[in-house]
Design brief:
Chain lengths: 116, 114
């Protein structure tokens, strides 16, 4: 069975400082990894994904994430945080499969607060 | 490009009543998902359709939940009868059928069972 851990319920960072939201995963075989963001009363918005290739993945709004196979981690990063980045962030994993279920397993989410 | 449309946005019902949610996916997306998101948790897959066929419904409580996608486009999710623990946000998502694409989510329907 696959699982995702987001060890921090909340991350606080000052505007302009770098931010990191942590994610570790467990899956049989190779993983597909995703980050989504959720603003209040909104659905999930896709930020970025790792499928294969370069371990550093760049996504929307200046976010990036680094896939580390040995540490089974996929931490989300941004060099300079904005107040508008304040939201709930979800990491998700699914096993590599070209057919059948594409079920995403989500972490419980990390609330990011960027302080002006 | 229009996103995933869901209705209603909010619904309050009493326990043991029935409720239905509707979803219209992004045009051309053959894969459609229903997820349940309980407050304080990440979304959990209830059912995945590929066109109008069910691919994965292993986590769908089939004694009370049902879903259909008759013409391979719109989908409805029904709960009958509802329980208090069904209070959650129900998210519909769709994706291109290619194996390496991401899912796009609708705004969700917030269900409160009282």
């Amino acid at each position: 069975a696959q699982s995702v851990a987001q060890p921090e319920d909340q991350v606080n960072v000052a505007e302009g400082n770098p931010l990191t939201v942590k994610c570790t995963y467990s899956v049989s075989g190779n993983p597909y990894l995703f980050w989504y963001v959720q603003y209040p009363n909104r659905g999930l918005q896709f930020l970025l994904k790792y499928i294969t290739g370069d371990n550093l993945v760049k996504g929307s709004y200046g976010f990036e994430a680094e896939f580390n196979k040995s540490q089974t981690s996929f931490h989300l990063k941004k060099p300079s945080a904005l107040v508008s980045d304040s939201a709930l962030y979800f990491c998700a994993v699914r096993p590599v499969t070209r057919a059948g279920s594409y079920q995403l397993t989500f972490g419980k989410g990390t609330k990011l607060s960027v302080i002006p | 490009e229009a996103g995933v449309a869901q209705s209603p946005r909010y619904k309050i019902i009493e326990k043991r009543q029935s409720v239905a949610f509707w979803c219209n996916p992004i045009s051309g997306h053959a894969t459609l998902y229903w997820y349940q998101q309980i407050l304080g948790q990440g979304p959990k897959l209830l059912i995945q359709f590929q066109n109008n066929g069910v691919v994965d419904d292993s986590q769908l409580p089939k004694d009370r939940f049902s879903a259909e996608r008759l013409k391979g486009v719109d989908s409805t999710l029904k709960i009958q009868p509802a329980k208090l623990e069904d209070s959650a946000v129900y998210l519909c998502a769709s994706s291109d059928p290619a194996w390496n694409t991401e899912a796009f989510f609708g705004q969700g329907t917030r269900l409160t069972v009282v």
